[in-house]
Design goal:
This protein is α/β, with parallel strands linked by helices and about 210 residues long. The protein contains seven helices and six strands; from the N terminus they run ββαααβαβαβαβα. About 35% of the residues lie in helices and about 15% in strands.
């Protein structure tokens, strides 16, 4: 699959790059995508939720009324879950939500996500660019030039370019990442996928 390389001014460079059919041209596997996204979201959960059970409640252990003759149910502890202020039955406890997935399945999921973007023609290739200093305004100009400003956009760089990453960090609908940090969720969550020229080779090396 050939795609034109654009300058950050939005003009065509006249060059084209070939996106590997082994990655961008495969038949997407929806179940692999589902599992990878599920794992990504699970890993975002802190799992610090906690409620107190009856053994953890501060309260008197004295029997609150006599056993018989009251006409109501027998009760021995003010900490019982049936009373206001008592412990909670089977409440949430701290836990780790993460789970393991095989490396090949995660690779298939990322390939499938990239294939969907290519299939829907939502992939742009931009020649490598840099800023002299972090400037949000300059980054917005680049997005405007390639007609993706206002859309959810994922910009993938080949290397960890600090000035570009800082420039795009404060833009609501844009996210900047590197090829080795690319994940299925971010690809699918973006309307437009913008690949820097140097990131393509790295993505292909990582996913082959």
């Amino acid at each position: 699959m050939e795609i034109a390389v654009l300058k950050n001014s939005g003009e065509d460079t006249g060059r084209k790059v070939n996106l590997s059919d082994e990655i961008f041209g495969i038949e997407p596997n929806d179940h692999a995508i589902y599992l990878d996204v599920k794992q990504f979201l699970a890993n975002q959960r802190q799992g610090t939720h906690k409620s107190k059970e009856r053994a953890e409640i501060a309260g008197s252990t004295k029997k609150i009324k006599r056993q018989k003759g009251t006409g109501t149910a027998r009760a021995g502890s003010i900490k019982s879950p049936v009373f206001r202020g008592g412990g909670r039955v089977f409440g949430p406890q701290p836990r780790n939500y993460s789970f393991k997935l095989n490396k090949k399945l995660k690779q298939l999921a990322r390939k499938s996500a990239l294939a969907y973007k290519a299939k829907d023609q939502n992939v742009l290739v931009l020649e490598d660019f840099n800023f002299e200093a972090p400037k949000t305004k300059e980054f917005i100009n680049v997005l405007n030039n390639i007609s993706v400003n206002g859309k959810k956009t994922l910009v993938v760089l080949g290397d960890n370019n600090k000035n570009v990453i800082l420039s795009g960090r404060n833009i609501q609908n844009a996210k900047v990442t590197t090829a080795d940090s690319l994940n299925t969720y971010d690809v699918l969550n973006a309307e437009s996928l913008v690949l820097s020229e140097s990131s393509i080779e790295k993505i292909e090396n990582l996913l082959k």
